[in-house]
Amino acid sequence: MVIKFHDREKELNFIEEAYEKRSIKSIMMVLYGRRRVGKTALIKKFIDGRKFLYLFVENKSEKELLTELEDSLTNMLGIRPRLDNWDDLLRLIFIDIKNCIIVFDEFQNFLQIDPEFYSKLQKYWDEYHLTSQIFLITIGSYVGIMKKIFTDKKEPLFGRADFLFNLKPFNFFETHLFIDRSVEETCEIYAIFGGVPKYLLYTLLYSEKTMSLIDKLFIVEPAPLMEEGKNILIMEFGSAHKGYFSILEAVAQGKTVQHEIVTHTGLNKDTVGKYLYELVHAYGILKRNYPVTAKKKSPRQSRYIISDNFYRFWFRFIYKNQSILISNPDALKALIARDINTYYGFVFEDIAREFLIELNKQQNRLPFSFLHIDKWWHREEEIDLIAFDEGNNILFCEVKWKNLSMQESIHILDKLNGKTKSVSWKNSRRVEHFAIIAKNIKGKSEIQKKGYLAFDLDDFKEICEK
Predict the structure, then answer these.
(1) Which of these, 286, 299, 289, lies nearest to 259 by C-alpha position?
(2) Which portions of the chain are predicted below pLDDT 70?
(3) With contact defined as beta carbons under 8 Å apart, do 332 and 219 qualify?
(4) For residue range 421-441, what is the model confidence (pLDDT) as tens digits?
(5) Residues with Cβ < 8 Å from 227, sequence gap 6 or more?
(6) How far apart are CA 445 and CA 145, in angstroms?
(7) What is the rounded CA–CA span in Å between residue 83 and residue 392?
C-alpha cells in the first residue's frame, strides 16, 4: 500500500500565500501543533522542488548539527561551506544565500542545545529581514514552549514571527475521506484517534473493526499506542507532568468543574487553577466551555473538556486502568467494551455539531442560518446543542448514539420541548425549532412532517460524499 499525502489544500495555500510575500520582506512563519498531526509532512510537501535548507534539530551538540548543515548546504551550493558556529550559519543564510526557504524542525530543541541561538537569530533577523528575502519556517511540537518562545515579551524572538500557524488535526469529514470507511465506523474511529493523521494510518494498515483496533493498538503487546499519551505529554509538561496527568484523568472521567477536579485529584485549589489555565491557554489540551446562551462568562458556569479525542480516550480508558492493563488485559477489554458506547455518545455530540455547521454552510438545509452553536446547561438541565442567529431564531437539538424508532424520537423531542423553558434567551419573541440527531431514525420523514428536523448517519454520508 502506498500512503499518499492527503488533503491540506487550505493549509498549503496559506503557506504559499505567505511565501509570496517574501518579495517585500523576509517572512518568519511559526508552525506548531500537537505531535503526529503532520507538520513535517506538510512542509516537506511545500518545499518539494524548491530551493531550501532543512534541519531537524535533534538533541545533539552544536558541532554535530553544524556538520549536518554543511552536508545540506553542499548539495544546495555545490561547494562545502565551513560552519564553526551559529554566526557562520546565520551570516551565510542572511547575507550570502538569500532568497530561499529555511526550515528548522523541532525548533524548541535549541533550548537544550544552545539557548543563545534565539538571541543570535534575533540579531540577524532584525538587521537583514528587509533585504534577504528569506522564508524562515520554524516547526515545533511542544505547543507551550513554542508559544512562549514567540509570544513571551521577555523572549528575544517576541514579535518577530509574521505568522503563528497552529496545524489542527482533521475534522470529522476530512477523517472520513482519509480512512474511507462507513460513516458509523468513522464516528467510532474519530472518537478514539481524533483526526490525527499518524494514528489514522493504523486504520489503513489494519482492516479490523474498532474494538479489534483498540485491542491491537492499545492493549496487546507490542501495542504501539499503549503509552503514547504518556510519552508525548511527559515531554510537554516536564517534571510537573504528574499534576497535569491527574487533572486530565479527572476531566476524562467527567469531573468538568474546578471543585470536582480539586476533590478528585487531591491537589490544592491554587495548583489546580494554575494547571487548568495552562492546559487551556498554553497547551490547548483543555477547552473551557460556557453555556452557549450565556451573556457573561461566569467562572461558576464553566466546564472543562479535553479537546483532543485521542487524549480523551487514552486518559479515560488506558491511563486510568494501567494496573488492570498489566495484570489482566482481558478485564480491560471487557471494561472498554462495556463503556465504549457511552463514550461514543459523548463524542457524537461534537460530531453532530460539526455536521450542523456543514449544513449551515449550505442554502436552505436549515430553517435559518445560525451564528452560534454549542452545548447548554443550567443546574440539572442540559441540552446537547443550541444554535441561534442575531434575530429571534433558535434551534434546540438532542443527540443520541442510538438507533431510534419514530416513537422514541418523538418522546425525546417532547422532553426537549419541556427543557427549553429553562433557557433564558429572548423568551417572549423567539421562534423555536427542534431537531434530533441519531445513528438511525425510523420514520424520519414522518417526524419531519410534524415540523421537526431529524437527521441520522445517512445524512452525514450525503455530506461526506459531496
Answers:
(1) 299
(2) 1-6
(3) yes
(4) 999 999 999 999 999 999 999
(5) none
(6) 52
(7) 67
Q: Which of 167, 125, 176 is closest to 14 using CA atoms?
A: 167
CATH architecture of residue range(s) 351-464:
3-Layer(aba) Sandwich (3.40)
Which cell numbers hold the place of 1? 500500500
Return the pLDDT at 208.
86
148's CB contacts (< 8 A; 6+ apart) are 155, 282
Grid cell digits, residue 59: 538533541
- Summarised one tens digit per residue, pLDDT across range 336-366 is 999 999 999 999 999 999 999 999 999 889 9
pTM over 0.90: yes
Identify the residue whose cell numbers are 493549509: 11
Task: Among 3.30.1050.10, 2.40.10.330, 3.40.50.2000, 3.40.50.300, name the CATH number for the domain at 9-166.
Answer: 3.40.50.300
Give the C-alpha separation, 442 to 30, whole Å: 49
Q: Take residue 130 and report the three cell numbers written for it.
A: 528587509
Q: Where are the alpha helices (DSSP H) in 255-303?
A: 258-265, 269-281
Render the burial of 223-246: b for 16+ CB within 10 Å, e for the rest: bebbebbeebbeebbeeeeebbbb
The three cell numbers of residue 337 are: 467494551
Residue 352 grid cell: 453532530
